[in-house]
Amino acid sequence: MPDGGIGASTKRREDVRFLTGKGRYTDDYNRPDQTYVWFLRSDVAHGRITKLDTSAAEAMPGVVKIFTSADFTTAGGIPAGWQIHDRQGEPMKEPKHPILAEGKVRHVGDPIAAVVAETRAQARDAAEAIEVDIEELPAVVDMRAALEAGSALVHDDMGTNLCFDWGFVEDNRDAVDAAIKAAPHVTTLELVNNRLIPNAMEPRVALGDYDQADDQHTLYTTSQNPHVIRLLMGAFVLSIPEQKLRVVAPDVGGGFGSKIFHYAEEAFVTAAAKVVGRPVKWTSTRSEAFMSDAHGRDHVTKIELATEKDGTFLALRSTTLANMGAYLSTFAPSIPTYLHGTLMAGNYKTPQIYVNVRAVFTNTVPVDAYRGAGRPEATFQIERVIDKAARELGIDPIEIRRRNYVTEFPYQTPVAVNYDIGDYNALMDKLIEIADVAGFPARREESAARGRLRGLGISSYIEACGIAPSNLVGQLGARAGLYEAATVRVNPTGGITVFTGSHSHGQGHETTFPQVVASMLGIDAGSIEISHGDTAKVPFGMGTYGSRSLAVGGSAIVKAVDKIIAKAKKIAAHLMEAAETDIELKDGRFSVAGTDKSVAWADVTLAAYVPHNYPLDQIEPGLEETAFYDPSNFTYPAGAYACEVEVDPETGVVTVLGFAAADDFGNVVNPMIVEGQVHGGIAQGIGQAMLEAAGYDENGQITTGSYMDYAMPRSNDVPNYKVDHSCVTPCTHNPLGVKGCGEAGAIGSPPAFVNAVLDALNSGGIKVDHINMPLTPSRVWAAIQAARA
Amino acid sequence: MYAFELVRPATVAEAVAALAEDGAQALGGGQTLIPTLKARLAMPEKLVSLGGIAELRGVTVEGDEVRIGGGTPHATVAHEVAKAYPALASLAERIGDPHVRNRGTIGGSLANNDPSACYPAAALASGATIVTNKREIAADDYFQGMFATALDEGEIITEVIFPIPQAAHYEKIRQPASRFPLVAVFVAKFADGVRVAVTGAAENGVFRWTEAEEALSADFSPSAVEGLSADSDGMIGDMHGTPEYRAHLIGVMTRRAVAAAG
């Protein structure tokens, strides 16, 4: 095998341009004669627009046109991509999400009007001159209050703020109730999974262009899935046939889910470019991002775990309120349901599980997928309630997990999914080793000598990645398939361009995908180029999220390369006048088994395009193949995490001293990139657990509208990590045996951190059951005070 | 930001003249003002940049005093007073991030008097003298509440004179997001007594904790302030901490500052 194949820690080739300032992001695109748009956004959470007069603003310098909802009467609303049915089988409430507010504003940041002008500053100046009067209405902020009779309504015509009341598996409901009632021990925990603001390094940008000559629309946008945007926006919002619409998502500087969704600004610039006859560009400011990028998480949950006295799990019941925000973002309904409820078995053979989720509209920014998307919410509840149960029952937290681990595979959970393979005890063994659990008591003593409380927190996690079998998700309400596509174009001289529907926005596909192809063909990875992110170039793909790119997108590439190899062998057999079945491909050469005859890869590729000596009667010239791969199951990465913290009991300040992660991602293509993904995920998880929280006051004003109050993790908030992925149980149903690694760190780390802080407090004689995230110094101190009172 | 006129005087006299005009505002290192302008929260007609005035920059140590030019960035202070007044240097090198420390100035910080800024604590605890183009103002008279100072319109801080204490330390706990002090305490021990200044905690900005000063003047040890607690009345309450938490932290930070000052 050549250098740089599967298993090599090849340096990321894309980093050369990223680190030298040569990346080409959406904001780097500018079209001749371009205009700029500034959105006038609501500064109140809920209100009726009683006056909207743009006449003075229209007279301002540089203004090209000012748009209001009156300009979009024929456009559709921004659609939801997943339909949930409630416990009675009724479809969810699905309010219209207009491009610009129609009569009412429903969250701070809701766009009311859009000014297109010659410069961004002129557009902004004119937006400030728009006369708008809003009759303020009571803001719906708290989810519980939103469901009470007499609450103000986010959407008047719906008559309720309840989007859906979902039960999973509804048939298990009574059995779980009965099991909990009869159980020898029940541990109950009420907790909040805090609302997060994604904060990708690159804010969103959208540039619409329209070519009158051929009636072609082009949208350049910061997206994780350009084909999905083309489908949703073209078919549902603007009625543009797909062959007339090109969506380009070039280099994208981080997404974490927030750039999956189709946003109103994208539809606006696409439509406006045709109306004004000039390209229209929008670049989000960081302040706008806080109030217009879909937020993440925001669950309020009660979890109950019924056990035997020896810690054997009997039943689990989870009851959650999930915030949808003011409108349904693209995949919002699927996150607290099928990406959350299906994971409630965790790594454990709990026989009875029931999950109830009520999704609630509020006057807040829409909430949707954020790194992990539903799975962190599930994992957090499970791993927190297990820790509490262990403390109540006097069982070691590692031991109680081991007693309940699933150990035989495949394992059918009571919440629909079927785990194909895993080895959770091996992961825990590895964790105990790399976290030096044996040395912890000595470290705790050393901390105690300095007046600090040291704690060790453990968590296990499982996630469902490689999203997803299309027929299954279709039954569950997805309005899309979730396969992936790839075209492998072999050039005459042997170099290769791989066109993939996956989209890299930090994952390193330009490095890892060539490693896969290089290993299959035995050629140098450097001769393989990855093309992605342009609907005019790549086959219809579903994009990158849910840790799916290698498992699904990579599998599509493998299938396409398999077709290439099959055809190339036919050509090689012809060139060497041998039987096709005797042809072997190794180290980039085709040889005839049992002979010294061989031809090089480039000889075959050249023959394919210069078919002078070629079996034209049997096969077509050229060497280019496309494949679609639709997975037969989810993949189930799993891991065991340990976090070690020190708490200053006088101030409540928590310091993370160590973090160890043992993950089973199946086979690993590039260990260095996998390690980096885990590092980033843990940093985000520590961010959620220790620092980050989006706040709203009772009027629906964002109290964390900038980095002055929204705390992102910095490098010195996190420790050096110990990361291991040597426990490998290869996925049984995809050709690479891979599972996905992008979200694991963010899923497994929050409960490990919180468990560690609670271990520190409780072992120090401070009895605290739970502290809601983020565990800021003031919250930890308040919990200590309450315990001592 | 909105459009404004930028004036770049080379001398204090030119700056004073420029600031006398209507709608003019001084621009120091810009670490507060520029973000404010970018958010369109201020609309000055004219900004008078003090950044090009050489006479405002520099640090000199003379006897038992450190004199710092009003336009001196934090990073320079951190470097230049490390030997003469290590507690002040330590404060300067923990402000913000490298960008802030290399742009932000001591004069700008003191003129703004953010209730969560670091420098006001050092100035007040040290009994510093704020020198302007017109007069000298004792620190005790200078700080007049949140974002309020004794400065007149158009008055420029040209120099700050710090008496060097026998022992001192600045202890802070950071607000997790902004990393401004959530509460920070500067303790300075002089021959004639101890001064304790608290920043980040109170709605009225930096203040002296006189109760602790008396106890520490009698006995400069952490145990001297062990039983003391600051009053939570008038303390800031926000998502990062209740008034009670901030009041509690004043005691903790003071004890730790005394312990570290030795």
Automatic annotation (TrEMBL), chain A:
InterPro entries: Ald_Oxase/Xan_DH_a/b, Ald_Oxase/Xan_DH_a/b_sf, Ald_Oxase/xanthine_DH-like, AldOxase/xan_DH_MoCoBD1, AldOxase/xan_DH_MoCoBD2, AldOxase/xan_DH_Mopterin-bd_sf. SUPFAM superfamilies: CO dehydrogenase molybdoprotein N-domain-like (SSF54665), Molybdenum cofactor-binding domain (SSF56003). Residues 20-138 form the Aldehyde oxidase/xanthine dehydrogenase a/b hammerhead domain. Its EC number is 1.2.7.4. Pfam families: Ald_Xan_dh_C (PF01315), MoCoBD_1 (PF02738), MoCoBD_2 (PF20256). Keywords: Molybdenum, Oxidoreductase. SMART domains: Ald_Xan_dh_C (SM01008). One of its GO terms (molecular function) is anaerobic carbon-monoxide dehydrogenase activity. It comes from the Bacteria. This is Carbon-monoxide dehydrogenase large subunit. It comes from Amaricoccus macauensis.
UniProtKB/TrEMBL annotation, chain B:
GO terms for molecular function: anaerobic carbon-monoxide dehydrogenase activity; FAD binding. Its EC number is 1.2.7.4. It holds the Pfam family FAD_binding_5. Keywords: FAD, Flavoprotein, Oxidoreductase. PROSITE patterns: FAD_PCMH (PS51387). InterPro entries: CO_DH_flav_C, CO_DH_flav_C_dom_sf, Diverse_Substr_Oxidored, FAD-bd_PCMH, FAD-bd_PCMH-like_sf, FAD-bd_PCMH_sub1, FAD-bd_PCMH_sub2, Mopterin_DH_FAD-bd. Residues 1-167 form the FAD-binding PCMH-type domain. SUPFAM superfamilies: CO dehydrogenase flavoprotein C-terminal domain-like (SSF55447), FAD-binding/transporter-associated domain-like (SSF56176). This is Carbon-monoxide dehydrogenase medium subunit.
